[in-house]
Structures are given as structure tokens and as C-alpha cells.
Amino acid sequence: MKYIVCVKQVPDTSGKVAVKEDGTMDRSKMATIINPDDLNAVEAALTLKDKNPEAKVIVVSMGPPPAAKMMHELLAMGADEAVLVSGREFGGSDTFATSQILAGAIAHIGLEQDDIVFCGRQAIDGDTAQVGPQIAEKLDLPQVSYAADIEQEAGKLKVKRILEDGYMVIEAPTPCLITCIKELNQPRYMTVKGILEFDQKPYTVFDFETLKDEPLIELDTIGLKGSPTNVYKSFSPPVKGAGITVEPTAEGIGSMVSTLAAKHII
Amino acid sequence: MIFNEKYEMMRKLYREFAETEFTDELLDRLEETGEFDWEIFHKMAEYGFTGVKIPKEYGGQGGDSIAYALMVEEFARVSPVLSLYANTSNSLGAGPLLYCGTEEQKQKYLTPVAKGEKIMVFCLTEPGAGSDAGGTLTTAVEDGDYYVLNGRKTFVSGAPIADYAIVYAKTDPTQRGSRGISMFILDLKLPGVTIGKPEHKMGIIGYPTSDVVMDNVRVHKSDLLGPLHKGFSTAMKTLDGGRLGVAAQALGIAQGALEESITYAKERKQFGRPISNFQAISFMIAEMATEIEAARELVYSTAEKKDAGDPESSKLCAMAKFFSAEMANRVCYKAVQIFGGYGYIKEYKVEKFYRDARITSIYEGTSQVQQMVISGNLLR
Questions:
Q1: pLDDT tens sequence across B168-227
Q2: Domain made up of A2-226: CATH architecture
Q3: By mean pLDDT, which of A167-181, A237-251, B32-46, B81-95 is the weakest?
Q4: How many cross-chain Cβ pairs, A to B, lie less than 8 Å apart?
Q5: Chain B CA closest to residue A193
Q6: According to the 3-state scheme, what is the secondary structure of B215-235?
Q7: B47 CB near a chain A CB, below 8 Å?
Q8: In angstroms, rounded to a whole number, what is the distance separating the alpha carbons of residues B54 and B135?
């Protein structure tokens, strides 16, 4: 049994945003963190592994070589194996291209009957929430998004999905893909033993050569050139000033009207 | 010292744990009640912090002295008292067992201590024997398969919450000074053991300290630890490791106080500008940071040399503790000074750092005892 978790190293958006000339983010100039929702996905897999110790947790990420640091931390948390998908040909991929490559990488690892693929709901840099569902589509897997509770029974999963206006509990057969939200769990810390031993666990790099013959990957729709999305511009939005709250009373509304009038808005 | 990736990962782990789990609510509760918080202790145990420096075959994490010092430093940076929670098992508690426990003793006592299932403390100090540990009056007299222990140990950190204690007792009254002393593993539930009332302390509140009184306590011979009559040298070896821990604790306290001071100096305005713009304040911060950095290098390099078996490591551990503890007291004095009146108010963290720093130059050998150890090494 395998739990494959897709993770992404993202810029720490609490810091400053650096932008390249082509409008995409200059990730090399920004501090990085593990995408928060992806940590919930890792924890979901580790929690299930706690109950099924024979299961293997494999973390998969696409990114440049420095993403190794993040993979080491995930191994120190308890993941059993790490796969870094890394190659110049993959650089600049949008969600369409990325999900193809990740689906290809997962197919390359191989999916069996009881396996589950976990993703975070969305990454804090792009906020698209597209990659998880697109991977599921490409692998032709059932998908359950916004998981806030997961129970695994023989051959199927019971998942609670949290939506804006309520929640639903649904069943899905395995193998399937789940996207996780922060309400699902509290990610565990690394352990000292995990840190001391992470380099004894399997760590594999899938480069272009490894994946180029995967049928799920179309070579002309990967990388920056092959990505259908064109980034027009990236920028830090200007910080908005604090708003003024008025009481819904005649006096409050009167003061709001006079403020708006004084600023020549009305 | 330039750390490898693993030490950097450890620092990140310890810092994230402390910043997330040592909540203001928990710190206030410790300060108000003075009681040991089992919940956070169990959480530390769950992550293996109680056995950071204990070998894996005995349930520990298998870390080295730097892994241990980093943990104590990062925990103390947020809460000096909580840094003790995971410290004792790695230093004074497990030290003697690691140095001279038999395989059977290690399996029986070290493993549960490493996992945080049991707590073991260290009983050396007596009302009349502090810095002069050779003046020990507690006695152990052989009686068949047992030793009968009588005496009073004082200022035992963690005694009210402990399961076991390492006790030093005179077994050969004909030998003078520090000779003729032996070490015993004492089960604190044995008949004749009384735990005193927790002391009201100036700082490190939330980790109870009390007396341990032994009245005809029968300790089985299998719980004699190390060679008969030769326990004192093990005590000294254990104290080396303990001193490194106190040095790291002082380092963390000073770092915490510095960070508080920097934030405050930039926010607090007097005479129309932040007080950090005044040289009187900015130079204090420069001095604090420089002293901290010097102590940090001394602590890490001592940890590395101690593990490498450097023959000077006993002296270096004394130097690290002496310098780091005195440094922390100077830094916390300045931190309170930068905060002015607010630094004297309990709501501000520097008030607590100031009180907590004070113990670091006292326990596990005062600064003056460290100077005795250092000069004794130089002048022999």
C-alpha cells in the first residue's frame, strides 16, 4: 500500500515578492517554505500510515534542486521515500503542464489497488487549486477535494468535504486522489531521530530522461514554452489602509455620508 | 561554527516546537501555579526530546551534545523553565547511568527515562554540602543484599514529580573528602523516602524543587551504580555535561532577552523618536549581541570537543557555563534597563528572563566553583 503525496516548495509570502522580467516570480530571490496545505496532505498520509504501518509514504515534488531541503524535512517528519521531479525541460510549467508531469511521475512510480494520492488544496503562490484535480483527471482517478476528515476501510475511503456553505460525507473507491485543507489535521514536527536518519531513506530524482517516454506527458505542452497560461504581470498588491466601521444607526450613517461628501465621492 | 544541514534542521525543529507549543497561556499558568505541566512534558516526550542525547538502543534519539545544546538553547529562548523539562533526562538524570550503568540497569531505568515515561533526578547537594560535595553526610550501610540509606538531600530539581533519583552517599566513612562516596539508583516510592514541600523560588517557576529525605531506606544491591566508594568522579563527569546544558540555557535566555529588547527599542518612542536611535540604547544592544555570539561559539565548540573526547573538555564545560551564565545575567540586566519601568512589570517577558537568568550562575556549580575548576586545571 502506498500513499503518494504531492508537495510544493513555495515562496514565503510573508516576505517580499521578487519578479523577473517575463512577469513570473523570481523564486531564487525569495525565502521558501513547504506549502502549508501540502503539510496537511503529508500529515494525512502519515496518520493513515500510523494505522497501517506496512504502508509506504512517498513524497513527490516538482522543482529545482534546492527543493531537496524541503524533501529532507519531509523525510525527517516520517515520509519513507522522496522523489524530486527536476529538469530544465520542466521549468516554468503552468498548472496544466505541471499536472501532466506529476501524473507522469506518479504513473512511473505505479499505482495499485489500495493506493491513495494526496495533494494540498492549493499552493499559496498561485492559489489556483487546479493541480490536484488535474492530476486526478490525467490518471483517471476518482477525486475528492477539500477533505477535512479521512477514514480508510477495505478498498474505499470515507471523506468529509468542507464546502463554503456546509459539509458532505462521501465514499470513494481506491485508488483515488484527495486534496486536503488545513482543517483536516495539525501537521506533526520532524523528530531528531528523523533528522539524523533522513539520508538513509531512498531519495530519487526523476529528470527529463526518466519521464520523457511516459504516455501521460506530451512533450510539446510542458515547460514555460508549452504552457498555455501566459503570465502578464506579477506584483505585490498595494497595502490597503484600515477601513472605517460605522454603526448601522442614523448617527453612524450620517457621519459616513458626511465623510464621503467631504472627500467628493458623493 | 558553520553548521551542517542536520543541525540547521534541528534548530528549525526546536524553534518551531517552542514557538508553537510554549504558548503565553501555558507560560502564565506555570508562573501563577508553579506546578509542573504534564501535558507539555508528554508532548516533548512524544517527540523524543527527553531522550535527545540518549543512544537509540535505550529508547533515545541518538543525538550528540550539539543536538542537545541546540534544544536547550532554543527552548530557553522562549521559556527558560520549559527548557528544563527535556533537559534533566539528557544530563544529570541519565548521565550517571550512561557512564557506568550495567546493561540491566540501563534497560530497566534509562529506556523509560529516555522515552519520558519515567523521570529521574539527581541528588548530590545537602544542607551542609553544596559546592563542597565532598562533605556529604548521607550514609549507605551494607545489610545483606541491601544498603540502608539515611540522610537529607536538598534543592533537588524535579524531586516532587520524579520516579527515581541518583543519590550520592558515603559508603566508607574511613575515607575522607570526596572519597568513599557511592552512587545509588533510588526508587522514590520506597518506604522511608519523603519528598519535601516545593521551594518558593525566584525563577524557573513551574519546575518544582524540593528536599529528598531518606530514613532507613533499603536499596537493593542491584541498584548500586558504578564501582563502590568511587561515585564522586562519576558525579564530576555528569556535571560536565550538565554544565554544558546550563551554558546553553543561559545562551537561550540571553538570546530571548536580546530579541525582546530589539523589538521594544524600535517601537518605544521618547523625545520624538524610537529609543533605538539613541546611542545609549543601540550600543547596549550591540554589546549584548556580541557577548551572546561569543558565548554561542564557546558552547558549540565545547559540545563538539566534549564528544570528541578532548582531554580539556571538563575545563571547557566549566568555562562555557561560567561565561554564558555571567553573560546572560549582564544581558538580562541591560534588557530590563532598555525596557525601563516596563521591564520591572511581570507582563513583560524580560522581567521573567531576568529572574530566570539568575539561577544559571548558581546551579550545577556556582560561577565561583567554575572558576575553581578552570583555575585548578590551569594551575595543577
A1: 999 998 988 888 999 999 999 999 999 999 999 999 999 999 999 999 999 999 999 999
A2: 3-Layer(aba) Sandwich (3.40)
A3: A237-251
A4: 42
A5: B61
A6: EEEEEEHHHEECCCCEHHHHH
A7: yes
A8: 31
What does the pLDDT look like over B83-98, one tens digit per residue? 999 999 998 888 899 9
Instruction: Residue B353: count other Cβ atoms within 10 Å of its Cβ.
Output: 30
ipTM, two decimals, is 0.89
Architecture of domain B5-114: Orthogonal Bundle (1.10)
Tell me, which fold does domain B120-230 have in CATH?
Butyryl-CoA Dehydrogenase, subunit A; domain 2 (2.40.110)
Rg (CA), chain A: 22
Our CA-based measurement puts residue B339 at a distance from the nearest CA of chain A, in whole angstroms, of 28
Of B301, B287, B291, nearest to B324 by C-alpha is B291
B9, B52, B56 member nearest A73 (Cβ): B9
Answer for the pair A102, A63: CB distance below 8 angstroms, yes or no.
Answer: no
Taking the Cβ of residue A65 and every Cβ of chain B, the question of whether any pair is shorter than 8 Å is answered with no
Chain B contact for A190 (CB, 8 A cutoff): yes
Q: Which of A189, A191, A195 comes nearest B6 by C-beta?
A: A195
Closest CB from A69, A190, A193 relative to B56:
A193
The C-alpha cell 509542573 sits at B36
